[in-house]
Amino acid sequence: MKEHAFFTDLLLSHVSGFSMIREWAALHHEKLNGKGYPYHMRDGEIPFGAQIMAVADVFSAITEDRPYRKGMPEERVKAILQENAERGELSRLITDLLIANFDVVNTARDHASREAGKRYFRAMQPSGE
After folding, report:
1. How many structural domains compose the chain?
2. Taking all residues of the chain, what is their mean pLDDT, rounded to a whole number?
3. Which of 13, 101, 20, 22 is nearest to 55 (CA)?
4. Which of 2, 20, 25, 129 is least enclosed, having the fewest CB within 10 Å?
């Protein structure tokens, strides 16, 4: 499971023009307190874009329905994000911005998720149907 961030770094290193995307994607599981992966970076070493992706990743993971559980309610999501920020795992600034704009961000996430699902199921239809 934890290898995906390292392999993202490795694979995208071969794609010209993707250096910023590579960096953000590869480092989105790094924690400000150094307890993340794959490189165990700390606050000053983690690019701001990767910090944004880290907050977004946790947010989407706990708000979206999964095959094994329903998405969590707003108050629980906010509490988990705040706990992560207090432990020094996620950026306090980015976490606070997300929480202050929860409804807007969650509506956009839900819409994007539904649209992606529709595109997926259309793509899975056999040709001519």
Report:
1. 1
2. 93
3. 101
4. 129
Does any domain span residue 10?
yes
List the helix and strand counts (H, then E) for the chain.
6, 0
Integer Rg of the chain from CA:
16
pTM of the model: 0.87
Per-residue pLDDT, averaged over 66-76, amounts to 95
Q: Is the pLDDT of residue 22 over 70?
A: yes
In tens, the pLDDT along 106-123 reads 999 999 999 999 999 999
Select from 55, 56, 24, 58 the least CA-distant residue to 41.
24
Handedness of CA 111, 67, 53, 12 (dihedral sign): negative
Q: What are phi and psi of 66, to 5 degrees?
A: -120, 160
- Can you give the CATH number for the domain in which 64 is found? 1.10.3210.10
Per-residue model confidence (pLDDT) at position 128:
55
With CA atoms as reference, report the closest residue to 77 among 94, 97, 105, 58.
58
